[in-house]
Amino acid sequence: MSQISFADAEQAGKRKKTRREVFLAEMELVVPWKALLKVIEPHYPVAGRGRRPYPLQAMLRVHLTQNWFALSDPAMEEALYEIASLRTFAGLGLETMPDETTILNFRHLLEANDPAEDIFKQVNAHLTRKGLLLKRGSIVDATIIAAPSSTKNSTGERDPEMHQTKKGNQWHFGMKAHIAVDAESGLVHTVTATAANEADVEQVTDLLHGKEEQVWADLGYRGAQARVTRDVQWHIAGRPGDMAKMPEGRVRPHAA
């Protein structure tokens, strides 16, 4: 791990800890770092077989942070530049910062060699044992991740796994990340990926871990109650038109 800069050290020492900093300090203590590094190390490039600009532990910490805070690759790169606590957690300084391509390549390395899902499950199981992932409720949502729509590349074609979809009055091309977080802690416990034109509600059964008592979701998950057979209390946002018809000051719950 690299030494933090004087600027980051000064900033960390002059104010109280934020909730993000407290959370990262807890993760520092409870995540089984040595065990995870042992799983990944056989697949990570070594000197003489390609460029290895960043320590494995730093890239693992960036990868986990990206999952915990549900950040895209570009957003993770920007967060490292903007947020000192994330740089400190990863052991990185401003002069040695992985860009979005490096972050993407590390994730692809994990996906290609299969440990990505196992690592995510190991970490969440460890957090559950420590009482940091409570699993009584989940919040589900989806976000579109843009992909290049141009055909000016070596194949002359768009990525066949990406698709176009309309959100509001704007068209998007790419994929969609479907995310479920623990309602108590805010930790991401499940992530699935589809083409951008996949309806949010189609992934709801894969997002739930099976122990929720309550689920919160937006309008994109209307009808989810019919897809999940077990007893769950649903909190799904109402249509603006339905809200306008409600008596002032009253709330109409969408509960199964």
Tally of extended strands? 6
Rg, alpha carbons: 21 Å
Shape: globular
H/E element sequence: HHHHHHHHEEEEHEEH
Instruction: Quote the distance from N terminus to C terminus.
Output: 49 Å
β-sheet strand percentage? 15-25%
Domain count, please report it. Answer: 2
Please give the share of residues in helix. Answer: 25-40%
Structural class assignment: alpha/beta
Low-confidence stretches: none
Note the total helix count.
10
- Strand count, sense and closure of the main sheet? 6 strands, mixed
Average pLDDT over all residues: 81
Structure, described:
- This protein is an alpha/beta fold and 256 residues long.
- It folds into 2 domains: 6-129, no CATH class; 137-245, 2-Layer Sandwich (Nucleotidyltransferase, domain 5), CATH 3.30.420.
- It is built from 10 helices and 6 strands, in the order ααααααααββββαββα.
- It has helices at 6-13, 19-30, 33-40, 56-68, 73-82, 84-90, 100-112, 115-129, 204-207, 240-245; strands spanning 137-146, 163-167, 170-182, 188-195, 214-217, 233-236.
- Strands 1, 2, 3, 4, 5 and 6 form a 6-stranded mixed beta sheet that branches.
- α5 crosses α6 and α5 crosses α7 (100-112).
- The longest helix has 15 residues, at 115-129.
- The radius of gyration is 21 Å and the shape is globular.
- The relative contact order is 0.10.
- The mean pLDDT is 81.
